[in-house]
Structures are given as structure tokens and as C-alpha cells.
């Protein structure tokens, strides 16, 4: 894999989660462009830089030791990559302060470097949170590969920060440079809320939650077929999002014990608030994590999962396959993984390679609900 070379550092970077013969590198031309632009401006050890949505630590890792850098994003895997890549390049694993997207930042900041996220609601929430945190003379610079840079990103910068100048394209990357101006204080439209009829609950969704405006159709297909009569089973909702699968299951299984895991900090924040609203003080473990990587082997009876088929802009089944492997490891013998998936993804044959038996619980024209028994 090539090294990331910038005026600040030369770094050997890896992606998270790691996979053998990784086809993708952990940085791109937009990272290089942001670092080159910052170096041209001139910064010192006292310059306070906030880095947002740094996928694998390319920006924060390069700046560590050169400026006072804070990194913030909504990905547990991104935070893990930053730790690993700092250590991999001879720096202390905690050399950069990382703040989950669900928590507030401590300003003021002289420069803000933003990798434009796939979910523009997250960008909007982040720009609103910058109110009152920009030092005099500050600049906000957003970068992306042109194919992933919608016009709306510039509109959001203009609305919440100030006039925007677009850079020339370099290696198919572009920067949007915003100069802060006084703005009327903005009230965040997040979190959003929607109601379900069955079960009769209201769900709160922070800015980066998948399908935050309404229940996604895969989950809608899954809900009527969640297992009942679980007794005191240990149940995990893997990739829990706003927690809807676990909450619906818990309402049907009052004695069962639940663990909810997602790699999005905002999803975990949403799930925690939704669980409390629907189930009060009922005991639960809700955490941000790399799937079930930290789960003890053979400690679960049931795993519920609506697996993702992309990581940021990269589409594929690597994450889903990894989740299936993690579920198999964590389940007791005789335990079961229940999933919903698009028919065309062919999950049945994939699960059959890992599990003793796979059966179709239900189907719609677009989705299948499968039960895989260990």
C-alpha cells in the first residue's frame, strides 16, 4: 500500500476493519489536498485544528505533533483506526484527542478540516455545532472527491458558516473554503422522531442514524417475524441503529437480556434514549463497538441483525460477512442468528457456509428473513 505523503508527515495507514489483501487504501486525494492547503496557509504548534469525519486517521495522524488537533466523527471504526495508525507510525495511541460525534467539542478552533460525510444531515448538525466555537480569523475547509461532493454541501456551509469559495480540482478532489460571518443562531433540526403502530412506540433519531425520517423497509419486513418465547435468553441486536429491533423484541420477551451494538456513536445515543423511553429502567447493555468483536464466545442465544451493505461510499458485503462470522463465534451451540436482507444479496448461501442450518422465515418481493442455527 502507498504511503500518505504531506508537508506534515509520511504515514503508513491501514483501514478498519482490517481484511486480507485489502483492495482499498486508507486515504485519498481529498486528504492530501486538505493537508497541502493547511500547510500553505501556515500553522504553528499553537494553531487549534478540529478535524471532522477523518475516516481512518489520515488527517489527524498527519497533523499530530504539528498543531493542537482534536478529531471527531461518528464512527467507532474510525476512532479505532486513528488509534492504530498513530501507534503504527510511532506516536502514542492517544496523541490525538478523539471526541465521539455524540459529544460536544471544546473550542475555540482556528481551523476546521471536514471530510464531507455521506449523510449530509451529519454535516448540517456539525456545522450548527460550530456556532460559538470558531476563533477570530478562523476558516472552515471541507474536502471530498468530486464524485462524492453534492452541491448541497456548499449550500450548508454557506448557510451556517459564511461565503464559500470552491477550489480548483486536483486529482479529482475539491475543497470548499468557508469564511465565517456572523449568523443568526441556528436551532438544530435533529434529532428527528417518528412513531410506529406496532409496537406502539416513538423513535428518536440523531443526525447520522440510518433512515432517521422513518422506518426502513427492511426493518418493517423483519418486525412481525422477530422470535418470541425467548424466556431469559441473551439477545444481541448487531448493528442496532436506533434500537428498534431490540426494543420490539424486548417488549415481546420481558425476561430476555439485551445487548445493543453499533459502530455509529449517534446510533448508540439514539438507541439508549429510545430504550429508556420505551422500557424505562429495564437492564440493558448498549455500546459503540466493532460489531461483536468484544463479545465472549458462546455467550449469546440469539442475534438479530439488519446488516449494512456499505462502509461510507464503498458498497459490498464485507461488513455483513464479518458480522455473520462474529455472530457465529458469539452464539452458543443451538443458538440462532436472525437477519433480513435484500433477496439479490444471496445471504442464504453465505450463511450456509457458516451455520448448521439456514431456513427462510418469511419473504416479501424485495426481502427475505432468514434464521441460521449454529
From TrEMBL:
GO CC list: cytoplasm
Reactions the enzyme catalyzes: guanosine(1835) in 23S rRNA + S-adenosyl-L-methionine = N(2)-methylguanosine(1835) in 23S rRNA + S-adenosyl-L-homocysteine + H(+)
Alphabetized InterPro entries for the sequence: DNA_methylase_N6_adenine_CS, RLMG, RlmG_N, RsmC/RlmG, SAM-dependent_MTases_sf, Small_mtfrase_dom
Protein keywords: Cytoplasm, Methyltransferase, rRNA processing, S-adenosyl-L-methionine, Transferase
Keyword Cytoplasm recorded: yes
Residues annotated as domain RlmG N-terminal: 2-181
Enzyme nomenclature, EC number: 2.1.1.174
Residues in Methyltransferase small domain copies: 201-371
MF terms (GO), sorted A to Z: 23S rRNA (guanine(1835)-N(2))-methyltransferase activity; nucleic acid binding
Free-text function comment from the UniProt entry: Specifically methylates the guanine in position 1835 (m2G1835) of 23S rRNA.
Protein name: Ribosomal RNA large subunit methyltransferase G
Annotated source species: Pseudomonas batumici
Amino acid at each position: 500500500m502507498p504511503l500518505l505523503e504531506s508537508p506534515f508527515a509520511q504515514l503508513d495507514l491501514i483501514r478498519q476493519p482490517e481484511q486480507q489483501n485489502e483492495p482499498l487504501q486508507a486515504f485519498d486525494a481529498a486528504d492530501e489536498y486538505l493537508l497541502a492547503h493547511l500547510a500553505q496557509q501556515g500553522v504553528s504548534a499553537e494553531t487549534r485544528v478540529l478535524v471532522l469525519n477523518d475516516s481512518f486517521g489520515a488527517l489527524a495522524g498527519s497533523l499530530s505533533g504539528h498543531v493542537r488537533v482534536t478529531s471527531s466523527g461518528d464512527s467507532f471504526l474510525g476512532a479505532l483506526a486513528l488509534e492504530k495508525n498513530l501507534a503504527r507510525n510511532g506516536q502514542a495511541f492517544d496523541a490525538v484527542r478523539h471526541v465521539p460525534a455524540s459529544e460536544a467539542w471544546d473550542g475555540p478552533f482556528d481551523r476546521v478540516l471536514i471530510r464531507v460525510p455521506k449523510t449530509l444531515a451529519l454535516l448540517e448538525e456539525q456545522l450548527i455545532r460550530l456556532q460559538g466555537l470558531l476563533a477570530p480569523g478562523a476558516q472552515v475547509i471541507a474536502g471530498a472527491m468530486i464524485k462524492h461532493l453534492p452541491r448541497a454541501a456548499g449550500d450548508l456551509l454557506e448557510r451556517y458558516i459564511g461565503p464559500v469559495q470552491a477550489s480548483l480540482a486536483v486529482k479529482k478532489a475539491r475543497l470548499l473554503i468557508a469564511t465565517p460571518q456572523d449568523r443568526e443562531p441556528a436551532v438544530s433540526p435533529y434529532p428527528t422522531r417518528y412513531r410506529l403502530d406496532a409496537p406502539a412506540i416513538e423513535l428518536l433519531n440523531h443526525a447520522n442514524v440510518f433512515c432517521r425520517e422513518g422506518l426502513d423497509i427492511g426493518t418493517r419486513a423483519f418486525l412481525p417475524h422477530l422470535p418470541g418465547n425467548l424466556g431469559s435468553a441473551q439477545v444481541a441486536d448487531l448493528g442496532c441503529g436506533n434500537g428498534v429491533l431490540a426494543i420490539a423484541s424486548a417488549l415481546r420477551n420481558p425476561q430476555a437480556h439485551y445487548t445493543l451494538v453499533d459502530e455509529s456513536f449517534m446510533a448508540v445515543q439514539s438507541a439508549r434514549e429510545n430504550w429508556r423511553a420505551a422500557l424505562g429502567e429495564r437492564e440493558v447493555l448498549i455500546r459503540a463497538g466493532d460489531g461483536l468483536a468484544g463479545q465472549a464466545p458462546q455467550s449469546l442465544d440469539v442475534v438479530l441483525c439488519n446488516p449494512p451493505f456499505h462502509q461510507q461510499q464503498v458498497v459490498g458485503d464485507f461488513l455483513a460477512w464479518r458480522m455473520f462470522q462474529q455472530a457465529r463465534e458469539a452464539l452458543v451451540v443451538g443458538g440462532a442468528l436472525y437477519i433480513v436482507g435484500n433477496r439479490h444479496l444471496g445471504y442464504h448461501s453465505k450463511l450456509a457456509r457458516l451455520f448448521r442450518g439456514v431456513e427462510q422465515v418469511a419473504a416479501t418481493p424485495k426481502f427475505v428473513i432468514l434464521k441460521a442455527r449454529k
